Amino acid sequence: MTKCAALIVAAGRGTRAGGGVPKQWRDLAGRRVIDHTLAAFAASDRVGRICLVLHPDDMGEAKAFRKAGHLVATGGASRSGSVKAGLDALAVGPDGPPDRVLIHDAARPCVSPALIAAVAQALDTAQGAAPALEVTDALWTGAEGRVTGTRERAGLFRAQTPQGFHFAAIRAAHRTHPAEAADDVEVARAAGLDVRIVPGEERNMKVTRPEDFARACKLLEGHMDIRTGNGFDVHRFGPGDHVTLCGVRLPHGRGLQGHSDADVGMHAVTDAIYGALAMGDIGQHFPPTDPQWKGAESHIFLRHAVNLAAEHGFTITHADCTLICERPKIGPHAQEMRTVMAGIMGVGVDRISVKATTSERLGFTGREEGIAALATATLVRT
Ligand SMILES: Nc1ccn([C@@H]2O[C@H](COP(=O)(O)OP(=O)(O)OP(=O)(O)O)[C@@H](O)[C@H]2O)c(=O)n1
Ligand SMILES: C[C@](O)(CO)[C@H](O)COP(=O)(O)O
């Protein structure tokens, strides 16, 4: 099976969508528009290298995409200019020019794996392939709020992306195309390439106007795998001069005992993520019998759970941790704890909660024999 490179153009300004921020960076069902689009291509076994084309003002986002192994190019003033920049970047990428390329709008975040595969497969026997839907409504011309005529709709299609081509041919076509073009099919046809129509999908809409966000959100949520996991942990007090809770070291008259740094809060959050994935628990991944984890800092465990979630296509959208202890007082440190855990988890601080309660001096936490923590985590895969 020949793999295709994916070229995702995201350098537009989204003026029709409004909202203050270009649409590809706006939140849609718990993730940015561009992240939905990228995830769809990253999950396809027909796709190899991925190149994202960003606006010069958005290059601050490039680092994270490059870290994830993707190419990033700087876009042009028009969609065609951005496609050209992406094709040039792919041509000199670390693997050399790809055989085939699927060119897609970042603004089509609901693209399905089946459609990506259908376009890629069509390239086995076609010079170009792109999805489209037959026009089913009557077509009018109009001016000043009045209908001025009707048009024949037979043979008319609504074009979608991804538009797939053999790489060298579409790069040459874009290089020599004299003017702007609505899409890559127009450029390909002007160069004499034959383009096959693949049945498009209604769900593969382009987010263009403000009202499109609600529709795209519904479509994505219908396909969402939303998981909630819980975690619970206890560590007993022993000799020591500090405790580490949710990644923050707090001076204390006693320390928490454990094989690792005994960060009971971070352990509960880590277990909540494993729970949402239904992939065991911290003891299974980091056995206490293994000497290499003696005294280990708990961010190692949390990072492992976070990476496991990402490997399985999940985004962590929220975590909530409750620490149960009489002392130390958590309130003054909760913000720092949230910041530390959000940093490790790669999510906004507004998605991480840390709070505390006493047990009214009842039970082992009330007698200050130890600290307990419970946590929930919510994970989403679209
Ligand atoms: N100079 C440009 C213009 C558009 N695009 C990308 O082309 C796709 C389709 O374009 P469109 O929906 O028109 O996006 P915008 O140009 O951002 O929207 P608008 O025309 O409303 O400003 C989008 O993913 C957009 O980011 C691009 O990469 N570079
Ligand atoms: C390429 C495209 O998505 C095909 O429908 C579309 O032409 C790009 O969007 P625009 O609104 O025309 O810029």
TrEMBL record:
NCBIfam families: ispD (TIGR00453), ispF (TIGR00151), PRK09382.1 (NF006899). The record marks 153, 206 as: Positions MEP for the nucleophilic attack. GO terms for biological process: isopentenyl diphosphate biosynthetic process, methylerythritol 4-phosphate pathway; terpenoid biosynthetic process. It catalyses: 2-C-methyl-D-erythritol 4-phosphate + CTP + H(+) = 4-CDP-2-C-methyl-D-erythritol + diphosphate; 4-CDP-2-C-methyl-D-erythritol 2-phosphate = 2-C-methyl-D-erythritol 2,4-cyclic diphosphate + CMP. The keyword Endoplasmic reticulum does not apply. Keywords: Isoprene biosynthesis, Lyase, Metal-binding, Multifunctional enzyme, Nucleotidyltransferase, Transferase. It comes from the Bacteria. Residues 1-226 are annotated as: 2-C-methyl-D-erythritol 4-phosphate cytidylyltransferase. Its EC number is 2.7.7.60, 4.6.1.12. A divalent metal cation binds at residues 233, 235, 267. Residues 226-379 form the 2-C-methyl-D-erythritol 2,4-cyclodiphosphate synthase domain. Its cofactor is a divalent metal cation. Residues 227-382 are annotated as: 2-C-methyl-D-erythritol 2,4-cyclodiphosphate synthase. 4-CDP-2-C-methyl-D-erythritol 2-phosphate binds at residues 233-235, 259-260, 281-283, 357-360, 364, 367. Pathway: Isoprenoid biosynthesis; isopentenyl diphosphate biosynthesis via DXP pathway; isopentenyl diphosphate from 1-deoxy-D-xylulose 5-phosphate: step 4/6; Isoprenoid biosynthesis; isopentenyl diphosphate biosynthesis via DXP pathway; isopentenyl diphosphate from 1-deoxy-D-xylulose 5-phosphate: step 2/6. This is Bifunctional enzyme IspD/IspF. The record marks 16, 23, 259, 358 as: Transition state stabilizer. It comes from Marinibacterium profundimaris. The keyword NAD does not apply.
